[in-house]
C-alpha cells in the first residue's frame, strides 16, 4: 500500500459512514495500482518464458503448468481463467507454435485432447516460476509471519468474494 493511502486508512477518524467510504475508496485505489502492476508483470514474466509470448499466453501457460503431467482440458483452462473457448484456442495455438505446449490424447476419452507443457515449455516455465518466487521472497522478507498470514488469508477471502 502506498504511504498516502496507508495513512488514509489509518487516519480515518470522521463519521463511521464517511470513514467506511474513505476506506473503500483507498482500497479500490490500491487494488487498481496492484492490477496495473500485475498486467505489466505478466508481460515481463511471459517474455522470460519466451520472447514472443504475450501476457495472455502467460495466463494460459500458468494454468497448463499447474496441471498434472497428464495434461488439462482447454475447456477447464477457459473456465478457470473466465475466458471464452475461442480466445483460449487462439492462445493455445500461439503457445503450440512457440513449442511450449502440446496436445495429447485424453486416455479417458479417445475423442478429447489434453494440453501439457513440452519439455522446453516446462523448463522455461519452471525457471520463470523459480525466479518469480525468489523475487516474492525478497519483497516479503521484512514482513512478519503474522502480516504474511493476514495477507494470504485476506487475499483468499477477496478472491473468493470476487469469484
Structure overview:
The structure is a single chain. The protein has about 160 residues and is mostly helical. The protein is built from seven helices and two strands. It has helices at about 5-10, 15-50, 55-65, 75-80, 85-95, 120-140, 145-160, and strands at about 100-105, 110-115. Strand 1 and strand 2 form a beta hairpin. Helix 1 (about 5-10) packs antiparallel against helix 2 and helix 3 (about 55-65) crosses helix 5 (about 85-95). The radius of gyration is 20 Å and the shape is globular.
Tags for this entry?
mainly alpha, 71% helix, 163 residues, globular, 7 helices
Any idea what the shape is? Answer: globular
* Strand proportion: 5-15%
Helix share of residues?
Answer: over 70%
Q: Sheet with the most strands? A: 2 strands, antiparallel
Distance between the terminal alpha carbons, to the nearest Å? 23 Å
Look at the helices and sheets and give the structural class: mainly alpha
- Radius of gyration equals 20 Å
Order of helices and strands: HHHHHEEHH
Mean pLDDT across all residues, rounded?
88
Poorly predicted segments: none
Number of strands: 2
Amino acid at each position: 500500500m502506498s504511504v498516502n493511502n496507508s495513512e488514509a486508512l489509518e487516519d480515518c477518524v470522521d463519521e463511521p459512514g464517511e470513514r467506511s467510504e474513505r476506506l473503500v475508496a483507498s482500497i479500490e485505489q490500491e487494488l487498481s495500482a496492484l492490477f496495473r502492476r500485475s498486467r505489466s508483470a505478466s508481460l515481463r514474466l511471459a517474455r522470460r518464458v519466451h520472447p514472443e509470448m504475450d501476457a495472455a499466453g502467460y495466463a494460459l501457460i500458468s494454468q497448463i503448468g499447474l496441471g498434472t503431467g497428464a495434461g488439462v482440458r482447454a475447456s477447464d483452462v477457459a473456465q478457470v481463467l473466465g475466458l471464452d473457448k475461442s480466445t483460449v484456442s487462439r492462445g493455445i495455438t500461439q503457445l503450440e507454435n512457440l513449442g511450449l505446449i502440446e496436445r495429447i490424447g485424453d486416455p479417458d476419452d479417445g475423442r478429447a485432447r489434453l494440453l501439457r507443457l513440452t519439455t522446453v515449455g516446462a523448463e522455461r516455465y519452471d525457471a520463470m516460476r523459480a525466479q518469480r518466487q525468489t523475487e516474492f521472497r525478497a519483497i516479503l522478507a521484512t514482513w512478519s509471519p503474522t502480516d504474511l498470514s493476514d495477507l494470504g488469508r485476506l487475499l483468499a477471502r477477496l478472491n473468493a468474494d470476487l469469484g
